[in-house]
Amino acid sequence: MASDLEKRAKEAFFEDEFEVALDLYSRALELDPKNADLYADRAQANIKLKNFAEAVADANRAIELDPSLSKAYLRKGTACIKLEEHQTAKAALEAGSSLAPGDSRFVQLIKECNELMAEETHNLPEKAIHETPPSAVTPSEDVGPNHDTSYQSTVVEPSKPKYRHDFYNTSTELVLTIFAKGILAKCVTVDFGEQILSVSIDIPGEEAYHFQPRLFGKIIPEKCKYQVLSSKIEIRLFKAEAIIWTSLEFSKVKALPQKINASAAVKSQRPSYPSSKSNKDWDKLEAQVKKEEKEEKLDGDAALNKMFHDIYRDADEDMRRAMTKSFVESNGTVLSTNWKEVGSKKVEGSPPDGMELKKWEY
Q1: Residue 297 dihedral angles phi and psi, to the nearest 5°
Q2: Which stretches does the entry tag as region Disordered (predicted)?
Q3: 113-127: pLDDT as tens digits
């Protein structure tokens, strides 16, 4: 039973056996995947094991399942502080504080966030040259002992990911592609943090896919976006600083990124691709994906929309003007590509046989 595993996980946590607790919480979640408390408590075990990105993912899932669970916001805030995600941490802590106004831990951590953000702003030029880890913040917890313990995290061999991903980047943007075919948009969740990305693909009846990298550099979340296509998920990350990332994920030992003068950057410059031991032809790979999208068989409205999209994409300026003018003036009943024919007159509506054209009343 999930409750038995949860009880054993709590006991292991109290005994400072964090890896055992993590395993037991994971087994409990397999039996009870909609239990927000289990996700929040597993997030705490991940924090103790310094798995901060995983802790944020667990806290996000707990909040999604139960938005009123204050300890989930505490877990997220704590993990984000460790990841130097100070703005994201503060937002989570303020949300949690509104749910538990008498909990002094939220007040203390929000104060820590403000101090770290002020220090970060004050030392910004120096920090760009000498990257140093943030000062440690150790809040008291509502699950487990209140004292710090020394421990070492065990290196676990990562399992093979369900979906393959690749990326390329320019000085201002990174494009991440997850090659997942036939995924419905409603099954995909993407969250953007200051320096963390969280991607979840949850298909009913299948094991959920989670990808939560701590990014090489900081991004501007409100400018980032993603699109679910027929053969892939394309995620565009807008960089906070104009540099070329040498990798997707953060590493304490990493090559110094190359700073770019954004005003002098040439827009036609080819994007840089990640290094690879296998010497893959990334241009060929991208062309193959585009070919698959082009040759994909669609039915009904999707096929019709794709045909119109292809015609408009390959059309010259006069054809596009003709298509737009005829479609708008005819209330969507006529689509012409002949500008000489429609450019000098108003295009009247032409409803299908047996139907009547009516104008909308505003």
Answers
A1: -85, 120
A2: 130-153
A3: 898 888 877 655 444
